[in-house]
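Re: Re: ligand-bound prediction request (bumping)

Still looking for help on this. To restate: I need the protein modeled with zinc ion bound, output as structure tokens. Inputs repeated here so nobody has to scroll up.
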Amino acid sequence: MTTSQSQRISCPNPHCPNPILVQKVSGVVADGTASYVTTTLATKLSLPKAPEEKDLSRAITPAIIGGYGASLLLFALFASLGILFTEIGFVFAWILLGTVFSLLILVAYRNYIKNVARPIKALVPKWDQLYYCRSCDSVFLPRKPDFAPADQMMEFLKCNQ
Ligand SMILES: [Zn+2]
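Reply:
Sorry for the wait, this slipped through. Here it is.
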């Protein structure tokens, strides 16, 4: 299927020395990352890795330290204002507030991951259609007149979204 398809698809660059030397970008990346050495070309034509929700687990420890630390600071502020707690009251309130703060930090981090990942994931369908010309180092969408140098692939994808 790819042979007949790629025969019809050619590089739109009018100055291209050999416009039939084209390959799907996803294929170039798959070939270039198949061995343990990733080729420079495969790196250049890859989409940046989107952060995933499983990356959240790495934020748990910092969130707990941050959350409990922040609530301790709050109690220091209370104490400086003359608001004092009994020992039991302090421990109880510290655990409660520390947990709430930790959860808030995790929720904020989860939203951050989603906000960073969303625009990258939105580019995947277009990236999947993208072709690369080995002859002039351009990327283009099949049967479209626009093309761009391979190292400007991200800009090209964003413009053609
Ligand atoms: Zn070309």
